[in-house]
Amino acid sequence: MVRKKYHKAFKIAAVMQIMDEGKKVSHVAKALGILPTMLSRWVYEYQTHGDEAFTGNGKPIANKELEIKRLQKRLAFFLVKPSSPASSIYTLKTLWSITNIFTSKYFPNHT
Asked: Does residue 25 contact residue 18 with C-beta atoms inside 8 Å?
């Protein structure tokens, strides 16, 4: 079974039906063909994170600074245990690139 993905605009439109128009979660979910629990989670995420909600992959990032620190610790782990100088340089470049891509995707305004 393939997991269905919904665009950010779709999620926001569904949430606005509840928040702005005062419709019930169950009625909106049924009309859209989604589970009420999923829609309730979208409402919570939008209320909590505002325009930064729905970053993708079904996992909201609750604390940006905490996530950056977690990734920095993972990066440091790979730097401490090099198997050879060449592989450690390759690993460093690869992880640095992944970290920059992740940071720019999920934290575009982070300095």
From this structure: yes
Inside any domain, residue 37:
yes
Q: What does the pLDDT look like over 86-111, one tens digit per residue?
A: 555 666 666 667 677 666 666 666 55
Same domain for 81 and 45? no
- Cα angle: 65, vertex 63, 92; to 5 degrees: 45
- Domain total for the chain? 2
Domain that holds residue 93: 64-106
SS (H, E, C) the chain: CCCCCCCHHHHHHHHHHHHCCCCCHHHHHHHHCCCHHHHHHHHHHHHHHHHHCCCCCCCCCCCHHHHHHHHHHHHHHHHHCCCCHHHHHHHHHHHHHHHHHHHHHHCCCCC
Place of tokens 């997991």: 3
Is the pLDDT at 11 greater than 90, yes or no?
yes
**pTM given for the model:** 0.53
